[in-house]
Specification:
Blueprint (H helix, E strand, L loop, with lengths): L4 E15 L3 H5 L9 E7 L3 E3 L4 E18 L6 E17 L6 H30 L12 H9 L5 E3 L1
Parallel strand pairs: 3-6
Antiparallel strand pairs: 1-5, 2-4, 3-4, 4-5
Helix pairs in contact: 2-3
């Protein structure tokens, strides 16, 4: 059986990592299990490359960790410990060309982000582990619900 919609590849195409420069954070070794991650997800405007019969979609996310017990001395705001801004793009091929609108909306605006998010989540986990923060398990997110919220706001741009 051959699928008419195939996931070809993905790339992490943007990473910005920052953390506070603080002795307490450098010495901290208990893990961040008790600290809540703030996660912001943006779904990119999908593209359809007509000549190549390929869709490209992506996500831009921000993961930030704040210490609710520690306030910034100057602003009294909760202190941000770690912030990762990361983006991912994926390429999907189609056999017959562009889908009808209802199928296209479901596949491109909802399924593409759902397929890409686990790769993004894995990359963030790996970045944190490689950066000395130990094993961090990010919360599961219902990416279908997030994508549904974006669905009406996105248009699929066709490129010749």
């Amino acid at each position: 059986m051959k699928s008419g919609f195939r996931f070809l590849s993905y790339k992490i195409d943007n990473i910005k990592f920052s953390s506070i420069r603080d002795l307490g954070l450098l010495e901290f070794s208990q893990g961040f299990g008790g600290y809540p991650w703030e996660i912001s997800i943006g779904i990119r405007e999908p593209l359809y490359f007509k000549g190549a019969k390929k869709y490209v979609g992506g996500l831009d996310t921000v993961f930030s960790l704040k210490n609710p017990e520690e306030k910034d001395r100057e602003t009294a705001a909760v202190r941000q410990l770690v912030k990762i801004e990361i983006g991912i793009a994926g390429v999907f091929s189609v056999e017959e060309g562009r889908f009808e609108k209802t199928v296209e909306d479901q596949l491109v605006k909802i399924q593409i982000p759902a397929i890409l998010f686990p790769y993004l989540r894995s990359a963030v986990t790996s970045i944190l582990a490689s950066s000395g923060y130990g094993s961090v398990i990010l919360p599961l997110i219902n990416i279908h619900a997030v994508a549904k919220d974006f669905e009406g706001k996105l248009t699929i741009k066709e490129i010749d």
